[in-house]
Amino acid sequence: MKESQLKFLADAGTYLGKKIHGSVEETHISWVILTGRFAFKIKKPLKFSFLDFSSLAKRKKYCEKEVVLNRRFSEIYIGVVPVRKRGEDWRLGKGPGNIVDYAVQMKRMQSSKRMDFLLQGRKVTIPSILSLARMIGDFHAKAEIIATPFNVDFSRKAFNDIRFIGNFVWEEFPEYSAIVSRSVQWSDSFLRKHTDRFRERISGGFRRDVHGDLHSGNIFLYRRPVIFDCIEFNDAYRHIDVLDEIAFFCMDLEANDQKGLSRKFLVEYAHRFACFQNEEDKGIFNYFKCYRANVRAKVHALAAKQETDPGIRSRHVAWVGKYLLLMAEYMGESVMGLKGMRHQKGLRAKSIPSNP
Questions:
Q1: Distance from C-alpha of 328 to C-alpha of 136, rounded to nearest angstrom
Q2: 8 A C-beta contact, residue 272 and residue 138
Q3: 107, 126, 153, 323: which is deepest, by most CB within 10 A?
Q4: Pairing state between β 18-19 and 98-107
Q5: Strand ranges in the chain using DSSP code E only, listed in sequence order
Q6: What is the mean pLDDT of residues 172-201?
Q7: What is the value of pTM for the model shown?
């Protein structure tokens, strides 16, 4: 589907014979139509190095896979429904018309309970963090073990892909641009030094089929937390060391100036699943936090390039800067220098709206 068609479907299309009249939210790879009771997620017809939604058949395949994988965490996933077009009429689900796309249907959750919004309002409680730690730890302990060997070239490429946003960073943050080049050198050195330990952790059963995209935007904090939107489009991004998974979550908390919550999460999680075996693992955990800040910087840079609304674009740009600074911290850059840069650019988390 095209964006104009998606918006027409959301506004004037029908579901079960009734007008949808839904609002639309957007990520860099999908659109979500929100109604009173449901959310319908439609994949954009994109092809990148890390995903391929370019054909109708592939979008159907990954919609179905998304439902199966996410039901491991959540009961909100209902199924996959077709998007149909007949003349100028658009509908979701059964009925006349050609199938032009597919949507993942979910129960709609309350936006006010989404964790990234709650973090911005400093409303995430310690009991919620401990509940999440227990839930994730228990899931990881039972998750399928993945024994594929450590591929240092894949890991190097995944981290060093940040160079593709080099020009963007130079244009928006010339004073931070050196962070990108230094991070590549730092990562290459770390991977060379710790290759044996990465391999040992895989042999020890710490690479598992997990969520792959565990951050606060993919969590609703009800009495029992609701985790959703795991990665379905690339198994390699989901078949990871559990330290990589929780590093993403802890990095996200720290990006929102919640280091205390990050520490409490990590302690409780480790009680449920002993993921740290020695001192070297602590360095690997820090490496993964840097890598995840790297990933989020790339996601927001890509979104900023696609965005036409100046206000939303500026929010994406601000988060790119935030993650670049966090990468520098994890690499051991001068704390005083980083504080000065934060003050200069006004990039404290409390000054940045919730992740778009």
A1: 28
A2: yes
A3: 323
A4: unpaired
A5: 14-15, 18-19, 23-26, 30-34, 38-43, 77-86, 89-92, 98-107, 207-209, 219-220, 226-227, 239-241
A6: 95
A7: 0.88
